[in-house]
Amino acid sequence: MFKKGKRLAALCTIIFVVLSMCMPCLADETQKTIRVGSFEDTFNYVDEHGVRRGYGYELMQALAGYTGWKFEYVKCDWSNCFDKLENGEIDIMGDIAYTDDRVKEMLFSEETMGEEKYVLYADLTNTDILSSDYKSLNGKRIGVVKGAKPEYMLTEWENKHGIHTEHVNVGNNEDVKKKLANDEIDCFLSLEESICKRQVI
Prior knowledge:
Layout: H1 2-30, E1 33-38, E2 45-46, E3 52-53, H2 55-67, E4 70-75, H3 78-86, E5 92-93, E6 118-122, E7 141-144, H4 149-161, E8 166-169, H5 173-181, E9 187-191, E10 198-199
Parallel strand pairs: 1-4, 1-5, 7-8, 7-9
Antiparallel strand pairs: 2-3, 6-9, 6-10
């Protein structure tokens, strides 16, 4: 009886060791891959060394730690990320503001990613724009992501203060730098973290 117990214990130990060795293999095969729409912005970007960085990226990595998901980043821009989400080329996107229209088409998490504050930036060596006089923005060309919520917020602000500007579509930070250098825009709307020199509003 004692020998049978020892054999059973040895057999159980062997099975346990074999299963322990195989579990990582099984986990890798069943690990869910989630395709993330990746457009470069303040919260999610690739640095000069090709390393993905930003608050949005770090948040996704934390989520992966809780869920066991593996993320595959799919490059897109602001306009076609929504198309890719709708036709199933990507599964999720981060850094998207909640709107009544969007909630009809997509699901939003109960917890928000954070709070965004948008400001208008300009190089104040351009003496035509005065931070003390909003009316000095009249007729100026403002770089914005057209059709995005911040543009609507800017339009509401302009209407409230009786200011009339021209909105010029911009893409990523490199596009903003290029348009500023080529004198295609006078200032631009962005999150508080900025690539430009001075804050106007």
